Amino acid sequence: MRWLLGIAAFAAAWLLPYALGGYSMHVVDVAIIFAVLAIGLGLTMGVAGQINLAQVAFFGVGAYAVAILTTGAGLGFWTASVLALVAAVVAGLLAGIPALRMQSHYLGIVTLGLALAFINWVTNAHVAGRAEGISDIPVPPMFGIDLSSAYLFYYVELIVFVVFLALALFVTHSPLGRRLRAMRDDDLAAGALGAEIPLLRMTAFVLSGLYGGVAGVLYAGLIRFVAPETFSIGNMFLLLAMVIIGGRSSIVGCVVGALALAFVREALLDVSAFAQLGYGVIVVLVVVFFPKGLAGLLSRRKAGGRARLGPFQEYGTAAADEGTVLEVEGVTKRFRGLVALEDITLSVPAGQIRGIVGPNGSGKTTLFNVVSGFYSPTRGRVRLHGRDVTNLAPYRLSLRGVARTFQNLRLFEDLSVRENVLLGLDRTRTAWIWRYLATPWAVARYSRGLNRSAEEIIARFGLQEVADAVPRALPYGIQRRVEIARAMAMSPSLLLLDEPAAGLNGEEVRQLAEIVRSIRGSGVTVVVIEHNMGLVMSLCDHVTVLSSGRVIADGPPDEVAVDPDVVAAYLGDSMAAPTESEVEHAEG
Ligand SMILES: Nc1ncnc2c1ncn2[C@@H]1O[C@H](COP(=O)(O)OP(=O)(O)OP(=O)(O)O)[C@@H](O)[C@H]1O
């Protein structure tokens, strides 16, 4: 259906010039340029969640580079265009550097500053023609076709537009796009799943620069004159309005928004001051009432299904590696004055289920955060399979076999259960991105392979009925299982579970124990933080007890449970120490 719609739209677009007068054709040509810009902005802001108010500057870099290189340096139009694209991509890279350090409104302010700096530069620089701009850009040559005609130039634009729309849709629906969306939803969780956040942010800005550059080249070829006002903040705002109204996370929505607003802008040209006000009002209304824009109105909500879990299918047994998987040596973590961990030393042999218990605030989650790379320890070392991994970023640790779940569940709320699992499965590096241009068919084949593996994991964890639902539509117990499935999709050698039984009912806790045992049976070492003492006593081979950031006991569950220091540490804490019957149950 979508293909048919696409082909029909392309056929209609191909025939459009036959129905339009010269001026209308020109208006359509300009609208397409805005649509290309909006796709670029949709990719950075909508898909990747990076606030980017410099898109209009990338557009300007593309257009000005063509203007300067053709009129000043005497290059041919297409040679200048290739260099202009390179310049716009480099501008995107530079604008992306602040995104490595800051996010949200701070990033908005910085990118806005870059856009203003660009306008300021072109308005004052001699080489850019100052306020008068640069005219006499040559007509792009094309096998004798006269591209000074708005009608013929339209076909060049249409083909470029379709190619870059297809590229944007391909990227959005590929493993890379999924990672970008995951980063937008929760960059910490995406990092723990192997997403190289800094590179991904740069990728988003590079894409933005590329689309800005393409729009700039088209603009220079169409208008053959550049001046600062085209790249003004007013037009940046218009572009933003296009993307917000269309639906920022939908590429097609961005295109529809851009085309619609470009025509409205043209209609309101005589009352442009009021038009700006009008756009502002419309944007506010859309943000308040339809935060997902026009595209959100049309998209069908993914149902939560009947939200029933199927049975868990056990993993086959496999021998764990030999030796010690995790060693924590003398780790101290301070947060300003507060010592969250003090001189923690522990080691977890391969194939063990290790419990970490302790009263609230004793440092358990902080220990996980150090081991999984979220925090750097103030002192001490962490070793994985004997190799020092202290201070490695979460994505590096994830690629070395550490997977984790979170106390407060960090599922990607705008991605389906299947996509959450797919993210865990995708073990590629972001540097792989060149393949999206060079060998897209290989990317498509890889993506199909991931889909097949995802179905296996979904079936193993009994998630078939909820695979298309978004996590927030699901009961808590199912979300917890999805998080474990996603972590196991990473084929880890060390699985860190942070309070996996929190919020589960008795039957769900029993199923959880069965799942964790099966995971261990498949050769994965498990470390579990848990307050449910019954579960700890029955599940864990070995327990480490923390209190006020220190290890106060370490040993088999039954010994630890009766340790006087442990009993003392739990006195006064709301959580009860294990009861005698729990100890007996564990011993039995
Ligand atoms: N990012 C942070 N900044 C400042 N203090 C922190 C930070 N993270 C943890 N802490 C503090 O470190 C101490 C240990 O916290 P942590 O969350 O590790 O305890 P916990 O044993 O996991 O507790 P709970 O059982 O309640 O989850 C607490 O006093 C907490 O307030």
Automatic annotation (TrEMBL):
<feature type="transmembrane region" description="Helical">
    <location>
        <begin position="56"/>
        <end position="75"/>
    </location>
</feature>
<dbReference type="Pfam" id="PF02653">
    <property type="entry name" value="BPD_transp_2"/>
</dbReference>
<dbReference type="GO" id="GO:0016887">
    <property type="term" value="F:ATP hydrolysis activity"/>
</dbReference>
<keyword id="KW-0067">ATP-binding</keyword>
<keyword id="KW-0812">Transmembrane</keyword>
<keyword id="KW-1133">Transmembrane helix</keyword>
<dbReference type="Pfam" id="PF00005">
    <property type="entry name" value="ABC_tran"/>
</dbReference>
<dbReference type="InterPro" id="IPR032823">
    <property type="entry name" value="BCA_ABC_TP_C"/>
</dbReference>
<feature type="transmembrane region" description="Helical">
    <location>
        <begin position="239"/>
        <end position="264"/>
    </location>
</feature>
<keyword id="KW-0547">Nucleotide-binding</keyword>
<feature type="domain" description="ABC transporter">
    <location>
        <begin position="326"/>
        <end position="573"/>
    </location>
</feature>
<dbReference type="InterPro" id="IPR051120">
    <property type="entry name" value="ABC_AA/LPS_Transport"/>
</dbReference>
<dbReference type="InterPro" id="IPR043428">
    <property type="entry name" value="LivM-like"/>
</dbReference>
<dbReference type="GO" id="GO:0005886">
    <property type="term" value="C:plasma membrane"/>
</dbReference>
<protein>
    <submittedName>
        <fullName>Branched-chain amino acid transport system permease protein</fullName>
    </submittedName>
</protein>
<feature type="transmembrane region" description="Helical">
    <location>
        <begin position="276"/>
        <end position="298"/>
    </location>
</feature>
<feature type="transmembrane region" description="Helical">
    <location>
        <begin position="152"/>
        <end position="176"/>
    </location>
</feature>
<dbReference type="InterPro" id="IPR027417">
    <property type="entry name" value="P-loop_NTPase"/>
</dbReference>
<dbReference type="GO" id="GO:0015658">
    <property type="term" value="F:branched-chain amino acid transmembrane transporter activity"/>
</dbReference>
<feature type="transmembrane region" description="Helical">
    <location>
        <begin position="106"/>
        <end position="123"/>
    </location>
</feature>
<dbReference type="InterPro" id="IPR003439">
    <property type="entry name" value="ABC_transporter-like_ATP-bd"/>
</dbReference>
<feature type="transmembrane region" description="Helical">
    <location>
        <begin position="31"/>
        <end position="49"/>
    </location>
</feature>
<feature type="transmembrane region" description="Helical">
    <location>
        <begin position="210"/>
        <end position="227"/>
    </location>
</feature>
<dbReference type="InterPro" id="IPR003593">
    <property type="entry name" value="AAA+_ATPase"/>
</dbReference>
<keyword id="KW-0472">Membrane</keyword>
<dbReference type="GO" id="GO:0005524">
    <property type="term" value="F:ATP binding"/>
</dbReference>
<feature type="transmembrane region" description="Helical">
    <location>
        <begin position="81"/>
        <end position="99"/>
    </location>
</feature>
<keyword id="KW-0813">Transport</keyword>
<dbReference type="Pfam" id="PF12399">
    <property type="entry name" value="BCA_ABC_TP_C"/>
</dbReference>
<keyword id="KW-1003">Cell membrane</keyword>
<dbReference type="InterPro" id="IPR001851">
    <property type="entry name" value="ABC_transp_permease"/>
</dbReference>
